[in-house]
Amino acid sequence: IFYKFVLRFKKIKLMKILIPASEGKAKISNASDTKFEDTDFIFEEEVKQVVNLLELIDEEDLRSIYGTSQEKSILFHRQNQALFKEKCATAIDRYTGVVYENIGWPNLSKKAKEYMQNNVLIFSGLFGMLEPLTLIPNYKLKMNVLSLQHHWRPVLTDALNKEKLIIDLLPQVHRKAYTPNKNVLKVDFSVINKGKKVAAGHFGKAVKGQFIKYLAENNVKSKKDFNGFEYDGFKWDGMQFIKEKD
Q: In what order do the strands lie in the sheet with 241-244?
């Protein structure tokens, strides 16, 4: 089935939930036969601009872009450059990592999956913004390199500007890729340890994934329903999710 990414939320006012892409990607053996160049992706021109920028990078600078060995950096670079000729899989199947493992997409009900598709938007350094069922090839490119945050900011800001409510579950790196309006509620996960409050960081990824799952399974439409969620000691205090350590 070919899933064409259409920004339906420009026509239908729904609550949008912003989540980050994962650094880890699944190598899917049964990917569709659809190549990315055939998907009519709504931000195609902006993606082409990123790919064109990658063409200008010297080989000796690749390690600073991809954050790995020179050999692997070259492989990732070639993969990104060939992006439009590569076969695709849905974003929700492509992304791995703690957040996505805790969402548990394969085990969600049909209604929960429909909620995710209608409400969740995934921020990506290479693709800008994706719906869960958007078809994408395998790739590797973080949001905080090559001024990608600046590249995507006007595009994503415009796309989100008219929404009635946006639940921002993004890390700081991805939050810089759009300018929030009064329609945005930033939801953070924090831990209080010995009287000091610190960001949950990596340890907050599991609870974030469980929270997204909770939103989908319970068809949550406003923040007043956040009180019903609790996981691993994290509780909603009206502003953020807090866990107090003994």
A: 196-199, 189-193, 241-244, 234-236, 230-231
> Does the pLDDT value for residue 139 go beyond 70?
yes
Where is 119: in which H helix or E strand? helix 110-119
State the burial class of residue 194 (Cβ atoms within 10 Å of its Cβ: 0-12, 13-18, 19+). exposed
Give alpha helix (H) positions in 126-204.
Answer: 148-160, 172-175
**What are 29-69's pLDDT values in tens digits?**
667 889 999 999 999 999 999 999 999 988 888 998 998 89
CB 4 within 8 A of CB 39: yes
Residue 80 · residue 23 · CB < 8 Å: no
For residue 154, give both structure tokens: 């006007």
Count other Cβ atoms within 10 Å, centred on residue 12: 7
Structure tokens at 185: 């509620």
Task: At 65, list the tokens.
Answer: 């872009």
Of the candidates 184, 171, 180, 134, which has an alpha carbon nearest to the alpha carbon of residue 153? 180
Residues in the chain: 246
Whether the CB-CB separation of 166 and 222 falls below 8 Å is answered with no
Predicted TM-score (pTM) of this structure = 0.91
Provide the residue type at 154 as one letter: P
Q: Are 119 and 223 in contact (CB under 8 A)?
A: no
What the block records as the tokens of 233 is 């000691």
Where would I find the beta strands (DSSP E) of the chain?
A: 16-20, 89-90, 120-124, 128-130, 135-136, 166-168, 184-186, 189-193, 196-199, 230-231, 234-236, 241-244
